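[[Local backbone shapes]]
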Amino acid sequence: MRLAMGPDGQIAPDVRAKAPGRGAWIGVNRVALEAAQAKGQLKGALARAFKTGQFTIPENLAELLESALERSTLDRLGLEARGGTLLAGSEKIETAARQGELHMLLHAADAGRDGCANLDQAWRVGSDREGENIHGLILPVDRQGLSVALGRQNVVHIGITDKRAAARISHSLNRWLHFIGSGKVDDGAEMKVA
């Protein structure tokens, strides 16, 4: 993730790496970032990267980064929904899964176990991987957050029907999950973590 220094010397997250000016890249999770910030190591590393000590690191930098990564992932899901590569609704997802058209399966944090299990099974059947431990990923966001991101009501499960879209979502999702310490998505094709 990129941290950018604004004209006022304020350090801010730049998860899309598009802010002008100097930036510094970090590859740590939230716990490591908070520890480095508490020990003063982050300030030293950024002073070397920016070639100056005239900057301010917000005390809640880890929270700002987590929020930015979450927003980036939810924005990506919204873009894929508008692009027509995302399905919402158990029946549509189950049909696509059984026909082998599903490349990624995501569940809201507050999704029911039975609903998740049914869609996971349909995905295994449709991809000829019955008996394997392939299942959808339970996201660290609830149905309300997903519904807002997609501009729809009561989004509990999400199915991705395009391989390239699954890879794009996987990239964004991996960054977020790594930062919060929740696991990793395998190339957007198979979810093996929950």
User: Anything to note?
Assistant: Residues 61-83 form the longest helix (23 residues).
